[in-house]
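Data card: per-record layout.
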Amino acid sequence: MKRDPKTGAPDFYAFARDYLHTFLPTVARRSPQTIEAYRISLECFLDYLHGQANIERAHVSFDHFDRDHLKGWLAWMIDQRHYATRTVALRLSTVKAFLTYCSGEDLTLVPLSQAAKALQSPAIARRPIEYLTEPQTRAVLAAFAGRTTKSRRNRMLLILLYDTAARVGEITSLTLQDLCLDPPGHVRLTGKGDKTRVVPLTGKTIEHLRIYLAEFHPNTTHLPA
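The structure for this 225-residue chain is written out next.
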């Protein structure tokens, strides 16, 4: 047990050392860059405790990871340090992850971790989605003129991406069994979590597919309905 020999309370620095030097690199297999981000977040919280709450580093304990101190830390990062919203969210999420680890090691720290999880980081403003204009879309589709087999294959992939709004991985993992060219033509896509959905195909895309299949899969005589 990682406890202070004098007080019997969970030892914050012992937990932090094991988390950064043992758990993250060997159990969670996080990259050095990720581990450094966790370390910086903990250092940031300690800087706040020292500069704003007058708590010396040597005296920091899990008692200082209470909701009030964490809320003050958030306000400090936003109002005084002027951190970007994404940075604030990252700092808070890494401290939450640390407390989750600690609560798994010591049951007495579960309430502390649960209270921290309830804290919300500032909302990140979403950038509006930018769509290609019609001329830009035509230019993308015309990028492959079809003079080579590779060019014709890539053009077919682009047409499918445009018509189905699928992810690249969903298109590249398609099999012949996922296509149906008989009315109503459609394609069966498998997305994240192996969830499938059926997406209708336009008549023009079906024409392109028939030409493509005649060249690349000439022995295909029937596709599933």
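Known properties of this structure: The chain has nine helices and three strands. The mean pLDDT is 89.

See the next section for split statistics.
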